[in-house]
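User: Here's a protein and a ligand (magnesium ion). What would the complex look like?
Assistant: Let me lay out the input and then the predicted complex.
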Amino acid sequence: MQILGTIITTEETPSTTEFSFVISGKDTTVKKGQFIQTITKSNENMFGFVHEIFRANRYFERAESVAEYERIADMEKNFPIDSWEHMIANVRVLGNYKDGKFTRTFVPPSPGAKILNADEEVLKKFLGFEDSGMFIGNIQHHETPARLSMTRLLQKHFAILAMSGAGKSHLASVLIEELLERKQEDGRIATIVIDIHGEYVGFQYDEKYGKNVQVIEGEDIKIPLRKINPEIFEEWLPNLSGPQRELLRQSLHDLRTTADKKEGYGLKELFAQIEKNEGTRDETKKTLLRALGEMRRYKFISKNKELPKLRLTEPGKLIIFDFSSIDSLRKKQMIVAYIGRRLFSLRKKLEIPPFLLLIEEAHNFAREKAEAQDAISRSIIETIAREGRKFGASLCLVSQRPVNLSTTALSQCNTHIILRVTNPNDLMHIEMSSEGIDSRISKSIAGLKTGEGIIVGEAVNYPVFVNIRQRKSVKREKGLPLHEQAKQFEEAKKKKEEQVEAFL
Ligand SMILES: Nc1ncnc2c1ncn2[C@@H]1O[C@H](COP(=O)(O)OP(=O)(O)O)[C@@H](O)[C@H]1O
Ligand SMILES: [Mg+2]
């Protein structure tokens, strides 16, 4: 293996936590963020992480001499400056490795010891990757594939955080591919995606994955009224007064007991039942009916029809809720609240397999600061975040506005995958809410390119930068790119004009 450099002494290093090495020769490249190793006197492998690199040259150490020389002649002409330039890498010690085990470092490495690139096999183990894990790309500066353990990533939930265009949905698609490809013997789960912009619908046309994908168009979502218990109504309409709630409960109960089972019952029947109720003030009835009128406009409550039937959720399958045609945020929140509750309760009863619920634009569904009527789905998301682990109910929260995301929900996401973020407020928030992110790493996050990210938390033993891999599925978004939309508009207009002309 190529020798990268030699450990040097500085005032305080090498120590058990840090050391520096001079990089050997001009042809050797060492990069910030690279993992390295050295052999200690007791023949153990010591692992480290290059956290900064400096260039140095003795000829330029003294400002006044440099200024003086440069006045007379170019320094380069009179001194062998080039050959005196060298680079020094600062390393943070990560631990020792011997006979398949990692230990803490108790003795510093020796000055003069040689530095090698980290052994890929050991690196894999050090970071906590699994051979059957979810392959999301390679570790930055290394050929080591990042294969995350599904259990470690999902069980305690995870969040994908980054600004728009940094590659969040791309990464989510990569993870979905990995989930769809899992074999039964490795453990398969069901994946449910709340797709706000119709970015995932392409999965259904994919040759490889399509057969395991069901896309539910937002307008087609139907929930039979009998499946909706009073608690869900109260979550949807948090501003109902005590008497209004009582009236709603009573009416739902009466409907359940009297209505024809086969026929089912919907909002129309509920309205009639409420009107019929005696012993309630007209005012109460009127305001309750007005509140329920909103549900009528949203048109997702049905008499009998149910789409999708979440009870039939299967392992290794993907259900995509395409919300791109729904305008109302409240309607979207109501549906997410229902889906979340229903999935969680079905899972608790073991009627469906363990699942991952992936929510795009999660800050709109679990808002940190919002009045109850604008935070309809927050409570169930927080509940799954807190309690889901025991039941195999996992969350993936995808957001470009982590500042607005419920702190309760975000703090329960034990792994954060962070792609480029440049907004200082968001960066600061991420630094505070993600364990393992210090100000140095936070600076690197602002400089990431599309497709680069850092993983911190439960899924890895140490924060690691990753180049996210290409996706295997074909990307097919809903909606055309802007220039196509513009072209289509003008073409359509021209056609119309021609038709009018021909007619005249
Ligand atoms: N790892 C990657 N490799 C290649 N292309 C990528 C990668 N990540 C993102 N992209 C591309 O960058 C663009 C923005 O990515 P996207 O996932 O839509 O960002 P976001 O969801 O964060 O707004 C897309 O065209 C996507 O295909
Ligand atoms: Mg996106």
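Summary: The mean pLDDT is 93.
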